[in-house]
Design brief:
0% strand
């Protein structure tokens, strides 16, 4: 049966289109296959190339059975990955594998990292583990440890480390200065004093201990410490003496001990040809006498100062203030004469102190007389002076005089 020619041509065209479509689909499948194969290979290669360093390190660590090698890895991690380092270290501790680690650099790195991140309990844990493992740290390691803990103000931890290890077989002398500071700040003054006495330390090295005595109010111990230096023939530095006197000045019962200490130091100065006492030392005792309202003792001390040193404005300000407070107005004149003869210039502070005392004792006339002396002389009143006088005048009903002082204030331009 014969088909018409146009039917044959149509069939051929349809077959050709079908094959073309199939070829196109096949080509697209090949392209997709190549794309996914390339993507899969590239992804696999990238993952292999960019393995997480932490995972890779963990894999290596797991493969490594040598605790010393693991310790080196931990030591490196302490620089910036302390949490990981601590976890790996504790894994060693659980298995008792840390007992073979004896390198001090490892423990230094661990403790330093723990202190740096504020985990003092971890530092203590590592130190205790060293004790358990029977390690005996060197003197250099202990000095570094003490300095590290002291720098972070971990004073109690430092004292505990000292109690645990001591200072080693050949300690550097500086370690004792560090321990005195640490013990004093930790309020373990008995330990600090024992170290000072055993090591025959200088007074400057014992300054933290004296300051601790001031904080605790133990003036007897402060005086005893200074006396121990004098007994040993050690020159007491001025700042140490004045700090010890400051510890005494807060207590009325300590004033006689202050006087005795000054006399002992003065005798030591004569025999050793040294200079320890200064006007601050005497003024501290003067203030203590004034606090006890002992005018007579203040004048006796002034005579001593005139012989041994040179009084200053603070000396006479304290003396004048106690005289006014005790209504010893005749002695005020004597004090002023002594001040003039000693060459101490009258200052605004001194004059205002006197006025304050006169105002407190209801002697407004004396205060105003002193004010007139200030205006006539070279001493210029300040805002405190004007305010004091205006208030004193108002309190005693002298309004005209208060207004006059106020007018003086406005004209002076004082601010």
């Amino acid at each position: 049966m014969c088909h018409p020619p146009f039917i044959t041509m149509t069939a051929l065209v349809n077959q050709s289109a079908l094959w073309t479509g199939l070829a196109s689909v096949a080509q697209e499948c090949v392209v997709l296959l190549v794309f996914f194969a390339t993507w899969s290979i590239t992804r696999s290669y990238s993952q292999t190339k960019a393995v997480d360093p932490e995972k890779r390190q963990n894999q290596k660590t797991k493969e490594t059975k040598d605790p010393v090698a693991i310790a080196k890895v931990i030591q490196q991690l302490c620089a910036d990955q302390f949490t990981r380092a601590l976890r790996m270290y504790r894994d060693l501790v659980k298995k008792d594998l840390d007992k073979v680690i004896v390198e001090e650099s490892f423990y230094t790195a661990m403790i330093e990292a723990a202190v740096r991140v504020g985990k003092s309990d971890v530092a203590t844990e590592i130190i205790q583990r060293m004790v358990t493992n029977g390690l005996e740290p060197s003197s250099a390691f202990l000095l570094s440890l003490f300095k590290m803990l002291a720098a972070r103000k971990l004073y109690s931890e430092c004292v505990n480390a000292y109690s645990t290890f001591g200072v080693g077989h050949s300690p550097d002398p500086i370690v004792y200065s560090c321990l005195v500071l640490v013990a004093s700040e930790a309020t373990d003054v008995s330990l600090a004093r024992r170290i000072v006495d055993q090591q025959q330390m200088t007074s400057r090295e014992a300054l933290p201990l004296v300051r601790a005595y001031v904080r605790t109010g133990d003036w007897q111990a402060a005086v005893s410490l200074v006396q121990s230096f004098l007994t040993r023939g050690v020159i007491v530095e001025n700042i140490v003496l004045n700090t010890a006197l400051a510890a005494c000045s807060k207590f009325a019962a300590a004033v006689p001990a202050m006087q005795n200490l000054l006399d002992e130091v003065a005798t030591f100065e004569e025999t050793s040809k040294s200079s320890i006492l200064d006007i601050v030392s005497y003024n501290t005792l003067m203030k203590a006498h004034a606090k006890n309202r002992d005018v007579k003792a203040c004048f006796v001390l002034l005579d001593i100062i005139m012989k041994r040193s040179a009084p200053d404005g603070v000396t006479f300000s304290t003396l004048l203030d106690v005289c006014v407070q005790q209504d010893e107005h005749d002695l005020v004149s004597v004090a002023l004469e002594r001040m003039t003869s000693s060459g101490v210039e009258m200052t605004c502070v001194l004059m205002t102190t006197l006025m304050k005392g006169f105002a407190r004792s209801q002697r407004l006339d004396k205060a105003l007389q002193l004010y007139c002396t200030m205006k006539a002389g070279n001493v210029k009143p300040d805002m405190i002076t004007y305010s004091l006088l205006i208030k004193a005048c108002c309190d005693q009903g002298q309004m005209e005089k208060a207004l006059q002082v106020l007018e003086d204030l406005l004209q002076s331009g004082c601010t």
